[in-house]
Amino acid sequence: MSLTLASKKSFDALFLSVSPHLKLFDQPLLKSLAKFYSIAHWEYVQTEDEPSSLDPALTLLYDYVKTFDHPIHLMGHGLSGLLALLFSHHYPQRVRSLTLLAVGGQPGITWHAHYYAQRHLFPCSREQLLAKTAQSLLASSEQWRIRSLALALRQELDTSPIPHSLLGIAAFPPNSTPVPMLVCGSADDSIVDPTALKSWQNFLKPIDQIWFCPDGRHFFHYFYPKLVALKVLDFWEKWERSSAQIQATIQDKLAK
């Protein structure tokens, strides 16, 4: 196991990554957000000899976040978003808000779950299925991009703490989180489609939001980083104003 920590300085937001071979898809959004907020990147890499579980990552993430004296805006895409969701359930006092990218109301249904389900259904090789998966995930018809992504997906299966396997698909029941939550997805994502995203509606609080990018498929935040960043920033700023109003009301009541 290896762990890359953000620098020990104060920051406003933390973007999680437990998918080292897919982290390049996060970079454009991080650059867009960094123009307005201090944002850090936390990375977890699992070796092939370790049991595949999110529990060690959750523990190490807490050990890192607890060193800061203020709650943070927490973000994650796909499997990393699932980790962010689990963290907000366990340690809500450490989270200012939660932003999930391509995480549906059944949060355990990632591309990995689709891949392992298809392994049982289709009589094709691992490489063929990964190529098919890459093509469905990527908003591009360029073959070199699809081949590159298929290779990255293969590496991800070996180095990420995926809770699924050929033996079965792990279940993570849908549930509300006590922190303000923004859920983002793409209207043409085949993994977390609009129906999967809208299934969050039964668990939303008044401050929570669901937002759809017009296209971009599973990595919409890579193809439309500025558009996604604008939505995230708007959500954060609304939360900050709401929090300030609540604090002002409390202070007024205490003063009387």
UniProtKB/TrEMBL annotation:
<protein>
    <submittedName>
        <fullName>Alpha/beta hydrolase</fullName>
    </submittedName>
</protein>
<dbReference type="InterPro" id="IPR029058">
    <property type="entry name" value="AB_hydrolase_fold"/>
</dbReference>
<keyword id="KW-0378">Hydrolase</keyword>
<dbReference type="InterPro" id="IPR000073">
    <property type="entry name" value="AB_hydrolase_1"/>
</dbReference>
<dbReference type="Pfam" id="PF12697">
    <property type="entry name" value="Abhydrolase_6"/>
</dbReference>
<dbReference type="GO" id="GO:0016787">
    <property type="term" value="F:hydrolase activity"/>
</dbReference>
<feature type="domain" description="AB hydrolase-1">
    <location>
        <begin position="49"/>
        <end position="229"/>
    </location>
</feature>
